[in-house]
Amino acid sequence: MKERHPPAPPAEDSPGEPRGHYSGEELYVALRRDLISNRTPGGTILQESDIAHRYDVSRTPVREALQRLHQDNLIERKGRFYMVVQPHVDRIRELYEFREAIEASTVVLCCRRASDADLAHIVHLVDEQYRAAGEKRFHDYERFDALFHVAIAKGGDNRLLARQLEVSYDQIWFSRVGHLISIPEYSVDATVAGHRRIVDALVRRDEGVARAEMISHLRSAIELTERASPRSKRTGKRRAS
């Protein structure tokens, strides 16, 4: 397999800004953000020397940052190197199926209970997500994706459901590094369009359409994950939605 190298330093750094003073914790945050923002695919090799050179740091903070990423299950050992994890398709499927069960309810409750201010905030999150995608800030793009779905759950005014959804997002976050956006077939425009269809139904307080759009949105993520998985490509098998 051809080795793919870690991402370049964050694009938002100013040219004259000193970048040689990262602690291990700071480098962990920066490297994690950059892996997502650069849509780094599973299987990418991470070499200590390459990272140290790119971020202008010594090997010590690099080792600390990689150990943290390894503890998060975002990277794994590959001989002498680390490699970005390729999440198991069954694990991703289970998480999205769990989300479907939760969010089919939260979106209906949001239609019934959300205030106009709640809905305006949800619209704002979609706008911010779209802006982040246009500026290729994919770490922020994924953050706004999570905030969008959690805001819908909170708009439903059921703390138990909202908390369960937040927990599932934590599990999804720590089981991937930009899992979906790193897949070549993934479409940012299609994802945002799906969010806008959900929002349109929410603003109209149309429970049936909102529920159907949410389910369709989540199932498309499951199907994309399965199409892109190495096992699906080998066997030609796909699970039913």
Tally of domains = 2
Unreliable segments of 5+ consecutive residues = 5-19, 232-241
Q: Provide mean pLDDT, rounded.
A: 81
Strand content: under 5%
End-to-end CA span: 32 Å
Question: What is the CATH domain class of the largest domain?
Answer: Mainly Alpha
The strands making up the biggest β-sheet line up spatially as 1-3-2
Shape, please? elongated
Helix-strand topology string: HEHHEEHHHHHHH
Query: What fraction, in percent, of the residue positions are helical?
Result: 55-70%
Helical element count?
10
Query: Structural class, please?
Result: mainly alpha
Structural Rg:
19 Å
Number of strands: 3
CATH topology-level name of the largest domain = Four Helix Bundle (Hemerythrin (Met), subunit A)
CATH architecture level-2 label of the largest domain: Up-down Bundle
CATH H level, superfamily name of the largest domain: GntR ligand-binding domain-like
Describe the protein in words.
With 241 residues, this protein is mainly alpha-helical. It has 2 domains: 24-84, Arc Repressor Mutant, subunit A, CATH 1.10.10.10; 89-229, Up-down Bundle (Four Helix Bundle (Hemerythrin (Met), subunit A)). It has 10 helices and 3 strands, in the order H-E-H-H-E-E-H-H-H-H-H-H-H. Strands 1-3-2 form a 3-stranded antiparallel β-sheet. A hairpin with a 2-residue loop joins strand 2 and strand 3. Helix 1 packs across helix 6 (138-155), helix 5 runs antiparallel to helix 6 (138-155) and helix 5 packs antiparallel against helix 8. The chain is elongated, with a radius of gyration of 19 Å. The chain starts with 23 loop residues before the first helix and ends in a 6-residue tail after the last helix. Residues 5-19 and 232-241 have low confidence and may be disordered. Residues 21-87 form the HTH gntR-type domain. Keywords: DNA-binding, Transcription, Transcription regulation. This is GntR family transcriptional regulator. It holds the Pfam family GntR.
